[in-house]
Each structure stands twice: as C-alpha cells, then as structure tokens.
Amino acid sequence: MKTKEFNASFGATAGCTMRLAQLAAPVQEGEEKPLVEGDAWFGSVTCAVELAQRHYDCVLQIKTNSSLFPKAYIETALENAPGGCKIVLTASHRGIPLVAIGYRYSTRTALLFVSTKNAGSTRPGKPYEMKFNDAFGNVVQRLVEHPEILSDFFQKSNSINKHNQLQQGDLALEKRWLTPYFCLHTTIIGMFIVICFPLCSPLL
C-alpha cells in the first residue's frame, strides 16, 4: 500500500479511496460529477477535499479519522438531543466548500458525515424505520426523520456487505455447526450458498 499512487501525500485510506473512485467512476468531461459514498473507513476531510479537486462529489462518514472535522462540537451539541435531530455546518478548506453533518438517529448514537456542497440536500428525506420491543414484547416501529443526503447514503451503504450479512447473519452455519474441524468447511459452504442463491432464485 505504501508505494501506491496518492498514499505518500494523503495517507492510505484517502489514497485508496481516490484510486477506487478513478477506476470505478472516471470523470467524463461534460457529464455530471460522479458521487462517491464511503463509510467510516474511507471518510476524512482530506479525502473529501482531494476528491472534490478531482471533480467528484462525495458523502463520507467520519469516525476515527476526524482531523479538521468539528467532531467534539457536533457531539456536544447533540449530546441530549432526541432521535431524528441533526446539525449542519458549512466551511471551506483549501477553497473547497464542505458540509459537516451530525445526525442522531437514537438517544445513544450520533453519526458524523462530511460532504461536498452539492452532494445532496439536508432537507428531510425518507424516514428511518426504527424497530424496537415495547413493554409487552411486541415489535413496534417508529419513523425517525432522516436528512435526504443520508437517506440516499444508507440505501446504498450495505451493498458491499450483503454477502457477509447473509452468510454470517441469515445462514449462520458457523453458529449451528459448532465442531471445530468443520469451521473452514462451513465457511466455504456458506460462501458458496450465498453466491449461488441469487443466481438460482429466478429459476425457483
């Protein structure tokens, strides 16, 4: 990784994100800017700025790589806020207009994002469907207001992890076939089933 393009200047995560963006969605002159969306591994202000300078819009989640991001301010502002509250801040870094978003979807968790100015709207979008058990053990649902830019983000954010979710969560052979000698075999079988099932399902 250290010898790859962009890594020496911007770090491994930002460098990896820019390489992926250029390979997956090359910028075409005269066409709309490609939109890059990334979870907390990819997200940083540095990465957002470098993508913007290469004519990408982006929405990136911020977690540990919070340099230049007003993380402490946003977390303090949302500390006692109920689910559905958000805070939106704007600033420029190296001439690039950026938006910092803090969103609280529950009373315990605040999510942080940085985006380019034209990556999306912070007006209410599709609500988040929060499910929980009531006092009688029944599963109930509450709609929590979502900024539109984050609604779009979360609709796509689990695309890469769907196979892992199916294998480890829904199929979960490793949790049922507990004999240690079968561990590797169950993992391989689980991967095979998860990969083949979408191909076979139209025939069922």
Summary tags:
7 strands; 204 residues; two-stranded antiparallel ribbon; alpha+beta; 5-stranded mixed β-sheet; 36% helix; 2 domains
Structural description of this entry:
It is globular and about 55 Å long. It is 36% helix and 23% strand. It folds into two domains: 7-156, no CATH class; 162-203. It has helices at 7-10, 12-24, 45-53, 71-77, 148-156, 162-171, 173-176, 183-200, and strands at residues 35-38, 57-62, 85-93, 96-104, 110-116, 128-133, 139-144. β4 and β5 form a beta hairpin. By secondary structure, the chain is α+β, with helices and mostly antiparallel strands. It is built from eight helices and seven strands, in the order ααβαβαβββββαααα. The strands form two sheets. Strands 1-2-5-4-3 form a five-stranded mixed sheet, sandwiched between helices. A two-stranded antiparallel ribbon has the order 6-7.
Summarize the structure.
The chain is of the alpha+beta class and 204 residues long.
